[in-house]
Each structure stands twice: as C-alpha cells, then as structure tokens.
Amino acid sequence: MSKFGTYQPGQKIDKKVLFGPTLDLKPFVTAPYDGDLKYTPYGVLVHAGWSTHSGHYYCFVRTSSGMWYSLDDHQGSRGNLEGNI
Question: In sequence order, what are the beta bridge partners of 60?
C-alpha cells in the first residue's frame, strides 16, 4: 500500500493505515476471483518524513516463528509492529 499521492508529486498521504496480522486483499482486486486472497505480511517498509524528496526508510520483518524485528540502517532489534507505524 503506497502512502504517496499521484496527483501532487512528492506529497505524502498523511493517513494512518491500520491492519491486522492477516490482510484480506479481495476488496482490492478488480477482476472476478472466487478464491481466498488472505495474505500474512512478513515485512513492512516505513517512511519517516514529510515527502518523497526527504526522509528516512526503515522496516519491520517477521521471522518464521512470528517474532517481529525492526531494522534501521546498521542496527536491528526485536520490535513491536503495533503502534510503530
């Protein structure tokens, strides 16, 4: 899910996107599809900054055991995804 607008280049959409441990992608598919479209994220990329022209990127990654880690430049730590995005 991109949080950058297409109508004003460089502007960031200032809207919090909430999601649970599993995402249902079916509402976002335009073609008819009868199957299940559930997705369990294993990574989330975060941009901290006011526009696409400046700021900082960091991410959260989930291990196979379900533990989340925050990765920021040269450091990584056990992190909590909730409340950090």
Answer: 44, 70
Between vectors from CA 62 to CA 18 and to CA 47, what angle results, nearest 5°?
50
Rounded to an integer, what distance in angstroms lies between the CA atom of residue 40 and that of residue 17? 16
pLDDT digits 0-9 by tens, 27-69? 888 888 888 899 998 998 888 888 778 889 999 999 999 899 9
Buried residues in 51-71 as b, exposed as e (16+ CB within 10 A): eeeeeeebebbbeeeeebebe
Task: Find out whether 63 and 69 touch, Cβ atoms under 8 Å.
Answer: yes
- Residue 36: burial class (beta carbons within 10 Å; 0-12, 13-18, 19+): exposed
- What are the tokens at 35? 């199957």
Say what the pTM is.
0.67
